[in-house]
Structure formats: C-alpha cells, structure tokens
Amino acid sequence: MKLKLAPGLSIRKSPIEGRGCFSEAHFKGGRKIAEYAGEKIKNAEANRRANRRKLRICAINERWSLDGSRGGNGTHYINHSCAPNAYMKTIYGHVLFFALRDIQPGEEITIDYEDTLHPDSKRCSCGVASCRGTINRV
Ligand SMILES: [Zn+2]
User: Fold this and answer.
1) pLDDT tens sequence across 6-59
2) How many C-beta atoms lie closer than 10 Å to residue 92's C-beta?
3) pTM summary value
C-alpha cells in the first residue's frame, strides 16, 4: 500500500529508531506542520492494539484515538526526542503538529511523547545530551 504523505514530509531511516518523519521544506517556528491522520478507534481498542511491536497510536481525548498504521499520512512516523523540534496539540478533535522552532529541509521531525501506551520502562534512544532515559515522562 502506498503511503499518502502530508505535503513537505518524507519517510526515511532514522538515527533514533526505525523509520522517521523528515522535513522536505522550511517550517517556520510556530507554523503548523501537518495533521495526524489514521483510523479513529475507541481507547479500549487502542489499548488492545498497544501490545503490537510498532506503536502508531495517538490519543485524541479520553474516549478516542487514531491509529496511524491504517490511513496515516507519515506523521505516525514522527519519533520521540527529549529535545524535540515540534510539538503536538489537539484542537477540536484534530491532532496537529506545530514547529517549535524553524525546521530546515532534511531535519528529522521529533516531538516529546511524554505519555504513551508504551510501558514506563521503555528506554529512549533519542541520543541528545539532555535525554531523560525513558520515552514516558515519569
Ligand atoms: Zn531521550
């Protein structure tokens, strides 16, 4: 199945983990990068799917989540970093990514996941000097 990527993004091998989401454009600090896309599922179903090896699920609110592995647009490849260049914000049920600072073409787009369906023991491999050691902020 061919992935339909959001404009200005590409998927490549990441130095952090597996494949990552990379910028192909200039995103100015504060600018919207893309919206998270995927299959809309109830959180109970999200928890059932959470034991898959590759987790591509994003919570919208206390009832709903999106599974980017079905119908995603590339934003589900955005890796975690303890020093990210982007952040995620939910606005009226839409999960949006914004640039924290100017992002150049070729940079990997990262966010701080903070709280995920991963176990708290899951180690972080972002590689920045300020890495806190785990994906979840515990
Ligand atoms: Zn880290």
Assistant:
1) 999 999 999 999 999 999 999 999 999 999 999 999 999 999 998 776 778 999
2) 5
3) 0.91
Contact (CB, 8 A) for 99 and 86: yes
> What gap in Å lies between CA 23 and CA 62, rounded to an integer?
30
For β-strands 19-23 and 9-13, DSSP reports them as: antiparallel
Please give the DSSP secondary-structure letter assigned to residue 25: S
Token representation of residue 57: 């699920």
Q: Cα(95) to centroid of ligand 1, in Å?
A: 23
Classify residue 7 by its DSSP letter. T
Question: Whose CA is closest to 21, among 108, 112, 135, 111?
Answer: 108
Give the Å distance between the CA of 1 and the centre of ligand 1: 31
Ion ligand 1, residues whose Cβ is below 5 A away: 82, 124, 126, 131
- Specify whether the CB–CB gap between 16 and 79 falls below 8 A: yes
